[in-house]
Amino acid sequence: MTPYEALMDHQRETEVLGQIAGRLGWDQETMMPRGAAEQRGEELGVLEGMLHARRTDPRIGDWLEKADASDPAGEANLRHIRRSFERAARVPARLAQALARETSVAQGKWAEAREADDFAAFAPILTRIVELKREEAAALSGGGDPYDALLDDYEPGATGDTLSAMFDALRPRLIALRDRCLGATRQPAALDGTFDTERQLLLSRKLAVAFGYDLDRGRIDRAVHPFSSGSGMDVRITTRTDPADPFNCLYSTIHEVGHACYEQNIDPAYLFTPLGQGVSMGVHESQSRLYENQLGRCSAFTGWLHGQMADQFGDLGMDRDAFYGTVNRLHKGFIRTESDEVQYNLHVLLRFDLERRMISGDLAPRDLEDAWNARFEDDFGYLPPSASKGCLQDVHWSVGLFGYFPTYTLGNVYAGCLNAAIRDAIPDLDDHLAQGDPTPATNWLRDHVQVYGGLYRPREVIARATGSEPDEGPLLDYLEAKFGAIYAG
Q1: Contact 476, 290 (CB under 8 A)
Q2: Alpha-carbon Rg of the chain, whole angstroms?
Q3: Pairing of strands 220-222, 234-239
Q4: In this structure, is residue 150 part of a structural domain?
Q5: Which residues are listed for Zn(2+) binding in this entry (predicted)?
Q6: CATH at residue 332
Q7: In whole angstroms, how far apart are CA 366 and each of 100, 121, 388, 391?
Q8: Is 154 a member of any domain?
Q9: Mind listing the pLDDT tens digit for each residue in 52-86?
Q10: How far apart are CA 70 and CA 298, in angstroms?
C-alpha cells in the first residue's frame, strides 16, 4: 500500500471503533440498566484507551510525512487526521482513559442528582471532571487559551473571544425584542389539555419521516435529554414526552432529525473516514435549528401541523392563525430546550460564560448553582425554583462537553444565513410547507451542506452555501420580522 492507503486503512478501523463507543453511549442513555453504570465506565475507559493508542500511533506521523493526496477529499482527510493526531498526541493516555471513565460514571450521578434536585450530590464529581478538563485543556493549548483548546473540539477555528464579540452583538437586540413581545397587549394563548404520549410518538414519527429521516437506517427512542447518535448507516435519535406539552416531543423530534439527516445524507463514499460526519457542532446545530424553527415553526407548516394535531388529539380550541402564535409563544421558563426562539440564545450565553469561568479557574464547580441562579436572575428577572430547572438541567458538563454550548448559538447564526439563502432559492417554499412537505428545503440543505460532511471547514461550508461569510444579521432580522408580526397590535 502507498503511505496514504496505509494511513486510511488504519483510520478506517479507528472510525469503526469510535462508532462502537458511540453506540455504547447511546445505550447508556436509553436502555442500559441503571446499576450498570460503574461497569459501563470501565468498558468505555478501556475502549477510549484503545482509541487513544490508535490516534497517537507513531506510524501516523510517518504516514503523514509521506502521504500524497490525489483529490480534494484526500487533502481534507489528511488535514483532519493531522489535526486529530497532533491534538491526541498532546493528551496522555491515562488522562484520556480517566476522562472516559469519570464522565461515564458522572452521567448516572447527574441523572440521579437531577431527579432528586440535589446539586450538592453532583458537585464532587463535577469538580473532578472540571479538574480533568482543565488538565486536558492545558495539554492541548500549548500555552494558549485553555478554553479555546476545548472549543476547538466542537468548532475548529473558533475562539472564545470571537464568539463573545458575536454574542455581544446578539444580546441587546434579543433582550429588546423579548421585552417588546412580553410587554405587548396581545399575547398568544398557551396550549391547554392532556395529550396522550403514544399519540405524540406516532405524530413525531410521521414528522421525522416528513423531514427526511430514513428509519431503515435509524430509530427513535425516549431519553431524559433528546439527542442524536451515529453516522452513515446507523443514525439514531431520541425524544421525550410530556402529557401537558406535546410540542416538547414534536419539536425535539424535528430538531434531532435535523442532526440525523445531516449524518445520513453525507456522501456514502466518506463512510469510516474523517469526512464521514458533520464538520462541526455549529454546522450540525444549524441543520437541527433550521429544521425545527425556520421550517417547523413557520406559519405555513404550523397550519398543516394544526390539522395533524386535531386528527390525533381532537379539537385544540383555536384556529390555525392562533395556533401559529401558540407554537411560537414567548413565555417565562427555565429550561433551555423548551425555550422560545427569542430567548433561547440567552440561555446559551449564560452557559458559555459560566463554563469559561470554570475552565479559567474563576468559578469553583461547587459554587456553580449559586453563580447560575445569580446570572439567571440578572438575565431573566426571576430565580430557578430547583436545581433540575437550573444548573442540573443539561447533561453536557457531566459528560465533559466543555466548549459545546456556544455552538448552539453559532448554529442559530448559521441557520439564519442558510434560511435567507433557501428563501431566495425557493420562492414557493411556503406552498410546499403548507402541505406538510419540507423536502424542497431539506433537499437544498442536503445538496448544499450535508452531502459534503467534513470536506470543507465550518465557516467555508456556510459561505459556499450562502455566497457570503456568516454573521448574526440574518438571524436577528428573521427574529424581529417574525415575532414583530406575531406580537403586533
Answers
A1: no
A2: 22
A3: parallel
A4: no
A5: 255, 259, 285
A6: 1.10.1370.30
A7: 22, 10, 16, 11
A8: no
A9: 899 999 999 999 999 999 999 999 999 999 999 99
A10: 44
Choice among 29, 48, 155, 256 that is catalytic = 256
List the binding residues for Zn(2+).
255, 259, 285
Catalytic-residue membership of 256:
yes
Total domains present in the chain: 2
Question: Helix 439-448 to helix 246-264 angle, to the nearest 10 degrees?
Answer: 40
Per-residue cell: 28: 447508556
The average pLDDT across 389-403 equals: 96
| Cβ-based neighbours of 112, under 8 Å, separated by 6 or more | 121
Residue whose grid cell is 448544499: 448
Are 259 and 369 members of one domain? yes
Q: How far apart are CA 290 and CA 359, in angstroms?
A: 31
**Could you tell me which of 472, 459, 361 has the C-alpha nearest to residue 159?**
459
Contact 397, 127 (CB under 8 A): no
Cα–Cα distance measured from residue 348 to residue 167, given in angstroms and rounded to the nearest whole number: 10
Separation in Å, CA 5 to CA 58, 145, 232: 16, 36, 21
- Whether residue 358 sits in one domain with residue 420: yes
Query: In 402-473, at which residue ranges do the beta strands (DSSP E only) sit?
Result: none
Of 89, 114, 144, the last residue of a domain is 144
Which residue range forms the structural domain that includes residue 470? 160-486
User: Could you say which of 115, 144, 173 is where a domain stops?
Assistant: 144
Question: Over the stretch 300-357, which tens digit does the pLDDT of each residue have?
Answer: 999 999 999 999 999 999 999 999 999 999 999 999 988 999 999 999 999 999 999 9
- Assess contact for 152 and 158: CB atoms under 8 A: yes
Question: Do 138 and 243 fall within a single domain?
Answer: no
Residue found by looking up cell 450530590 in the block: 121
Indicate the annotated binding residues.
255, 259, 285
Stated as kind and residue range, the H or E segment containing 401 is none
